[in-house]
Amino acid sequence: MLKGKKIFLSPIERHNLVSVHQWLKELENFYLFSDSFITAPNLDEIEHWYNSIINNLSTKIFIINHLETKVSLGMIELSKINWKNRNCYIGILIGNKNYRRKGFATEAIKIIINLAFNQLNLNKIYALVVQSNIASIKLFEKLDFQKEAILKQNVFVDNQYQDQIIFSLLKSEYEEKINLYNI
C-alpha cells in the first residue's frame, strides 16, 4: 500500500473490476482511460483486460482509495515501462465524479512519481493528454511536467480527430523541485 495524506494506492485486484466497469460506462471516462477498447467495455472485456495486465512486468495499475472512507475513487497506472531506457507512461482516472477537482489526482500522481523515481529507478515519466482535457493539462502543468510535443490529430474523440499533448517529467527535474512532490 502506498499512502498519502488523503488517499492510499493499492494494486488493482479482481474485486475492483466492478468499480472500473462503472467508471468506464460513463462515456467521458471511457475516452480518457484507454485506447485498449473501441467502445465502452462490458464486464467480460474488463476481465480480459485485467488478465492481460495483471502479470505484465511493464504495467503497474493501482486503485486510488480515500484514506478515511476506503471508497475507491479511481485508478492510476504506470505502463509501457521500458526497463532498458528507464521510462514509462502515466495515466490517471478519477472515476467517481464526486471526488474530482479536490486534489486527489494531484496526490495520487505525487505518490506514483515517488514510486517511479525512488523505487523503480526510472528516469522519465510521460503522459499523453487529449487537447480537450483541460483539467488534465492543468494537472500535469501544476506538477511541473514539461510539454514535449503535440501529436496532431492523434486520437478520435467525440466524433472528431484531436491532438494529444505529450507531457514529461525527468528524474533530474523531479530532484531539482523535490519539495513540490512531497506529500
Mean pLDDT, as a whole number? 91
Per CATH, the superfamily is Gcn5-related N-acetyltransferase (GNAT)
CATH topology: Aminopeptidase
Structurally, the number of domains stands at 1
Low-pLDDT runs: none
State the helix count: 6
Question: What characterizes the major β-sheet?
Answer: 8 strands, mixed
**Shape assignment:** globular
Order of helices and strands: EEHHHEEEHEHEEH
Helix amount: 25-40%
Radius of gyration: 16 Å
The CATH class assignment is Alpha Beta
Distance between the termini: 15 Å
Structural class: alpha+beta
**In total, how many beta strands?**
8
- What is the spatial order of strands in the main beta sheet? 1-2-3-4-5-6-8-7
What fraction strand? 25-35%
CATH architecture: 3-Layer(aba) Sandwich
Describe the protein in words:
- There is one protein chain.
- The chain contains 6 helices and 8 strands.
- It is an alpha+beta fold.
- The chain has a single domain (about 1-180), classed as Aminopeptidase, CATH 3.40.630.30.
- It has an 8-stranded mixed beta sheet, sandwiched between helices.
- β3 and β4 (about 70-80) form a beta hairpin.
- α1 (about 15-25) crosses α3.
- The mean pLDDT is about 90.
